[in-house]
Amino acid sequence: MTAAEIRRLAMRMEPRLRRAFLRAMSEHKGRFTVREVAAAIEAGNVQGLLETIAPKAGTLIGYDEEIRAGYIAAGVAALASVPNPPNRQLEIAFNARDPQAVDFLQTISGDKITEIIDDQRVMIQQSLAASRAEGLGADQIARNLIGRIEDGQRTGGVIGLHSRQVGYVDAARQELSDAALMRNYLTRQRRDRRFDSVVKRAIRDGRALSQRDIERITGRYADRLLQLRAETIARTETLTALSAGQNEAMRQLIQQEGLRPEQVRKVWRTASDSRVRDSHAFLNGDSVGANERFANGLLYPHDPSGSPEQVINCRCVAETRVDWLGNG
Asked: What percent helix, strand, coil does the chain show, rounded to 5?
């Protein structure tokens, strides 16, 4: 399977995974009203609030299905790309119900969903504490958490953001609330620039922004950060699923055809541009056997056993080659 074939699969899968994550977060936020969230905040029931508004595993079922679909699509495509052995037609189908394939899917999707959900609980507690420290009322805190309805659509809210991103939103709100800090907001790359004129007028006139303007501006900022997180998740998890499906296909080929692992080679391929991290650029073109690890310790690009520094936003893939004659 060539790098181009894998990247074509990724171009189809990545937007679907991104939309699935955003849809899940939007639908989850839409289940609650500001009034009921504010009531829980006023009651001081933090644990109850977490149980109510923190996403659950079922929230991400569509996201989970897209990962499974990508994994299977890569497995099917990888086997379809294998050239026929000498003097016969290769007849092998990818088995998504193979115990190893099932175990991997359950582990990789389960671990990622658990990671997202656990971080959401941390994020909600963090946002709640920051809003209380600012002295905000329960209604304002509720809108900070789940967003507000504007033009018939819910915008803003921190549900779905990474806990680090919540810190950015809290800082932006503080900047917009303080005339001495307001210029700092205009340096934020992910801000919605359509509101820059509002902020600049307030700076020019030496006046404070209204609470409504602050909520609208930080809400759109949060929306853009959520888009960024969806893009990062989709890019990383798409190639994780595709690379893993490809790797499983080669394992099944070796097992069913009685090949030696060294007859199947993996070749590391980078995106070949200036954004490739140095540790991966060094590997470009390196070839190892099916069961061997590359010099960075990974079985294949996006190997889940790798550190975040190795896999997050990585765009590398592995080409696979089969030597039926075992000549190397």
From this structure: 60, 5, 30
Q: Nearest-CA neighbor of 254 among 105, 5, 87, 85?
A: 85
Segments of the chain with pLDDT less than 70:
327-328
Six-digit token pair at 305? Answer: 């056993």
0.85 exceeded by pTM: yes
At residue 72, what are phi and psi to the nearest 5 degrees? Answer: -70, -40
The residue with tokens 């497995």 is 75
* Structure confidence by residue, pLDDT tens digits, 4-46: 999 999 999 999 999 999 999 999 988 888 898 898 888 887 8
- The residues near 142 (Cβ < 8 Å, ≥ 6 apart) are 34, 35, 37, 38, 41
DSSP string, 210-258: PHHHHHHHHHHHHHHHHHHHHHHHHHHHHHHHHHHHHHHHHHHHHHHHT
Cβ within 8 Å of residue 231, ≥6 positions away:
18
Q: What is the dihedral angle through the alpha carbons of 11, 4, 251, 73, rounded to the nearest 10 degrees?
A: 30
Measure CA of the first residue to CA of the last residue in the chain; give whole Å: 17
Cα angle value 229/233/238 (rounded, 5°): 150
pLDDT at 327: 57
The secondary element (H helix, E strand) that includes residue 320 is strand 317-322
> What does R_g of the chain's alpha carbons equal in angstroms?
24
Q: Is the dihedral angle over the CA atoms 195, 199, 204, 210 positive or is it negative?
A: positive
